[in-house]
Design goal:
By secondary structure, this protein is mainly α. It contains 8 helices and no strands. It has helices at residues 4-13, 15-42, 51-74, 88-94, 101-104, 112-140, 147-210, 214-233. The chain is globular.
Length: 262
């Protein structure tokens, strides 16, 4: 029998699997850093008060990318090319969630709909990130090799989620409630499908690296599909609810550095 803890322990204990895991994570975080940096630069004057928080979000994501690359260096490993089927951020963009990269590469100010799309996309993806990091912190928060990184990233992801709730509620009070709920639902349904596809692709590659039996690979695949079925029917609702967070103004200050990793 296997669990989330035993599965991740296998990955940590195997250099090739660990290399792939950290490479995928580093790429996604670095991409998120670039996206948030561009969004901060393109915010219109009417939303310039949001720019420091978006920039802080981007700085945190950049930091996470550096942390994952530093974890590789500590073991004497270098990043590997990330397979297209495991590229979460790229696949989300292809499904039309968030803001397209060709829009972010232009120098045109973002509009109200763009800001709603960005925050809704972030609220959904940060829900996923926060849940995954909470699970890792539960099982590996005290791990001698990855524990400090897990705790730091988990703290940041909780801040990001709190920030998304607070900013979306502010926009809802300004009269954008229906557009926000519609966009959140679209993002959530797209994200759970991408999460399923990426999970299947990552686990297939991990199975080949770690030499899993066909029965074990089949069981893991079935578990991923069952979780997708739950999310498609019911679980997506947790990604679209909004509540004022206990952590207010969570991104209101400068990003913390990570000198022990960078």
């Amino acid at each position: 029998m296997f669990s989330a803890r035993s599965l991740f322990q296998e990955i940590v204990d195997n250099d090739a699997a660990y290399r792939l895991f950290c490479s995928i994570a580093a790429r996604g975080e670095t991409q998120g850093g670039w996206e948030n940096g561009r969004i901060a630069a393109l915010l219109p004057e009417s939303h310039r008060d949001l720019a420091p928080k978006v920039a802080r979000h981007g700085a945190d994501e950049d930091k996470h990318g550096r942390i994952f690359r530093a974890l590789l260096r500590r073991r004497g490993l270098t990043p590997v090319e990330v397979p297209e089927a495991t590229d979460y951020t790229m696949l989300l963009e292809r499904r039309g969630t968030g803001l397209a990269h060709n829009k972010l590469r232009r120098e045109e100010p973002l509009g109200e709909r763009d800001i709603i799309a960005y925050l809704a996309h972030s609220r959904v993806t940060e829900q996923r990130a926060a849940e995954q990091m909470l699970l890792l912190r539960k099982h590996f928060g005290d791990h001698p090799e990855v524990g400090r990184a897990v705790r730091m990233i988990c703290h940041d992801e909780e801040n990001h989620l709190a920030y998304c709730h607070e900013e979306l509620l502010r926009l809802a009070r300004a009269g954008h409630g229906r557009a926000i709920q519609r966009t959140l639902r679209q993002c959530a349904l797209a994200e759970i499908a991408v999460h399923r596809d990426v999970s299947l692709a990552v686990m297939a590659r991990m199975g080949r690296i770690l030499g899993w039996s066909r029965s074990r690979s089949t069981l893991i695949r079935a578990g991923i599909m069952a979780f997708y079925g739950y999310e498609r029917l019911f679980g997506w609702r947790r990604m679209v609810s909004l509540a004022m967070p206990a952590r207010r103004n969570a991104l209101g200050g400068p990003a913390a550095t990570a000198p022990e990793f960078a």
